[in-house]
Write the structure tokens for this entry.
Amino acid sequence: MRHWMGALAVAALVAAAPAMAATHADLVRLYDGFRTAAEMPVKNGVPDHGDAAMAARAATADKMVADLLAIDSSAWPVAERADHLLVLSEARSVQFQHKVLRQWQRDPSWWATLDIGWGPKINTAFELPELPLKSPAERTALAAKLAAVPATLAAARTNLTDLRRDLQTLGVAHHAIEARLYTRMAGDLAKAGERGLAKQAEAAAAASRSFGTWLAAQPVTAPSGIGQPAYEWYLRYVLLYPFSFADMKAIGEREWERTMSFLKMEEHEHRGSPMLPTVTDLAGFEALRRQSDIELLAFLKNRRIMTVPDWLTVPSPEGPYVMPMNRDPAAPGLFTPEGRNFFREAEDRDPRTLRAHNLPGHIFDSAYRRRDTRPIRRDPRLNFTDSQRFEGWAFYLEEMVVQAGWLDDKPKAREIHYILMANRAARLLPELKLHANEWDFDQALTSLTTRTPYWMEKTDDTALYDMALYLRQPGLGLNYYFGKIQLEQLLAEVALKEGRGFDLMRFHDRFIASGIAPITLTRWEMTGNDDQVRGMWQAPLIP
């Protein structure tokens, strides 16, 4: 991890960038300088989110946007012009982070000192150590991380000057989990003979408990959503969606109705068959998953749905996905009825739909990106603005393999597929209304859980995790469904143009080859049609 360069160094680096770039190579140099300058500052192991440091970073983003807008890329090839808009959207995400999100001032979960789950957080958060520690270097590194926890949470108290009601509630719960994890860590370290580290872990637990007590006592009434105008700006000029807020509400409701109808048709057709039972242990879980992976890769190859490279193989056992609430020492076991969340209720019965999401979806995408040699496209985007492409493609695959016939002889697996789809559609309206401040967190959670047809109560780990994540990271819940919808739109356009010559495998391979970029840009590259991107270059001021 690079350390903060200081405001003067940042200003000098950005000032050295060309005022106007003439080639794609110039764009790459400007981009590389910005990525270095935009790293979140750290001093002595503690995030520096003070006014001076944050003002310097905001100014870096403002200057980057101005420099990018000064570039005339109109004569470049479409793929290079798409890179230009991609970098511009990323720089705007940093602007938006400073002008609207300001997580260091509004969101206590931003100040997570442990990396126990997905979502935005300080860049010093660390993973739980694997014991026993194997070397003096590991002991030294863990000691430094634990020593920084009290100072980090002290900085959090100083910086959290604009707390929001639902974010406060979520933060209290999150830091209580961290306190219990540090307490367990202290006990485990003591048993391993690491008594000095155990005392540091106890101090970290005490600091987390004290922070949680302070946080709960703060008087807060302000809503947590960012407001519809800012939300729409972000969707259009950062995530590069061609849809308006109203479009998304209407399409989202239609998708929920469609998937519920399909589910009920499946249930009626096979109403005499019982739902599949759940596995009861890790061995059964891994056996189901491995068999699904073997079948899926063979299906994709044999049906010529997409090129399956030699390096995309059945992965080693991964275990079930563990959400932050599952990591809580107070949580029930993973294979108990009380510990099985919504996604586990589906996957422990038949994992095929979710394996389509993950194996040719996320696992393939991540491996492909590591092999991508193109500057810009090979890098993960700041603020996870590439989640539309990741989640849209992965969710598209779930329905695509069903429509292509993978589950033709597995009716209960198809029912599980539609239950999962209905849940994804049920997430859309809550996120939209939550950020428009039409609903609070409890109202959004109620909508999600009551419109998910089975296996989800308001206490469900998946429901709580998803709604918390979509409140903290705008657009993320929408990215699954609206990324899929954009991909279907692209397929329809290409198929109409190619007619009877359309080939599904060629289409998927072309899509994959364009790399990890917003699907709006991929559509521009694959069709030459720029109607969706024309209005995305010049943006109004952030509301």
Summary: The two ends are 33 Å apart (CA to CA). The chain has three domains: 7-106, 108-216, 228-534.
